[in-house]
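Project standup — Tuesday

K.O.: blocked on the structure for the chain from last sprint. Re-posting the sequence here as requested.
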Amino acid sequence: MTSWILNHGDCLDPVSGLASLADRSVDHVICDPPYGERTHTNHRVGSTAKYRGISASPSRAKEIGFDPLTPEQMRGCAEQFARVANRWLIVFCEIEQASAWQSEIERVGLDYVRTGAWVKPGSTPQFSGDRPAVGFEAIVIAHRKGRKRWNGGGKHGMWTHPIVKPQTGERLHTTQKPLALMCELVDDFTDPGDLILDPFAGSGTTAIAALMLGRRFVGWERDANYHAIATRRINGDEAKPREEQPSLFGSIGGAR
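H.V.: unblocked you, prediction finished:
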């Protein structure tokens, strides 16, 4: 039985994207869409600086590798998320984008709950030394209107996990999230057997977390290289142990 589907294509394609899913056909959306123009154009210019006594001479930062999310794309995503999701919506974004996501979420009739944070030990310091470095990323949390339930009890909306460091060889995507972080979010917000949607699947970390914890997964990734990486990872040992789950086919409309 198939417990996951990863589509190769644009999630906002009007035929083969999220529009192909039936109304309220997934339980939750957990996603990490492209951030805004600020993040995508904020290069680090080469200069020598000291951070806690350590000299560093960073070169200009490499391109992230994909375009920032436009306001129109954010609007389209919010509309589709509100249509297909039964319960939680979890969206990573830069803190400067959080209010825009809140506005779109409320516009489409979902309940904005709050903005949480992924605190990132080991993240890049501010090499210029003239301002604080970014130490966390925002996580916008929303839900369909009505009664809410999660598995986190009274804990705070803050998740602390080290970044995936490129020098270890584990980073397969420029904005890859730690597997431990995604496992904690899946465990906090979803239940075994639930269907999780990630329309910006990247290297497949959310899918692996879902399958490891006995959830089902459907997603999209438009970059052929990342789609291949994610598929390989999902089919490999990272996604085990994987409990047998009901097939997705016939339950979510036209997902491929």
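K.O.: great, moving the ticket to review. The two ends are 15 Å apart (CA to CA). The first strand starts at residue 4 and ends at 8.
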